[in-house]
């Protein structure tokens, strides 16, 4: 009799793999302060407009960015039916999880609190026909917001050395094989600071290239990719602090928390990443200096 070799369903691994897949494709959607498909994603909401929390926010952002969903609303198959909708044939659901605590009586009669994880699947409103109009949204095309470059920051990053390719493609990433940084047009960013923070993040990735600090050759599994993202985000914050500016630390804190979970909450990872980030910033400041030759600060 043949034995089944089916791998047991592991929702936490599926989540981690999804996150790491986003890292391999470029900057994740929650770190995209620009307009257009693939840019800033709507904050995910349940069918009753209650916001999702924790890791589910990251998962649904990823799926929305990958599939181009403009609606913030997500719901189960049954919830869609109760609202008069019908999931279209062939549409694939997205995994979300619920963490909770249940109290049970232990062997000694005392109450015990045990954590549990429940996985379930939801669909975006864009995958469902017949929903009320309030659930639908149109995809956002790139917008020219008039955000202008800062001559001092442009000159600063030009001294660093990497080629910076700008195209309408709404993604920001470092391309190791081509050894260049790709950026969307600055005019499509909501703020000037958002543009240069994103460029700084990718510049830290660039320092990990084989011809420089050679970190990226170690990115062979999900933990390594998550670690590299920690390095890039911490490095971006350190770089802006070095330049005498205030980084968007609130957004960075939430971003870093996600990678710590992908690293199985390795308590020492943050310290190792900070050390690597400092090396990256040291390389950048050695090439570019510690000041931006511009009379005014980067505009928020």
TrEMBL record:
Domain Polyvalent protein metallopeptidase: residue ranges: 154-275
Signal sequence, renumbered to the chain: none
Protein name per Swiss-Prot or TrEMBL: DUF1738 domain-containing protein
Residues annotated as domain N-terminal: 13-123
GO molecular function, one term: single-stranded DNA binding
Native source species: Rubellimicrobium rubrum
InterPro entries to which the protein is assigned, alphabetical: Antirestriction_ArdC (IPR017113), ArdC_N (IPR013610), MPTase-PolyVal (IPR041459)
One Pfam entry name: MPTase-PolyVal
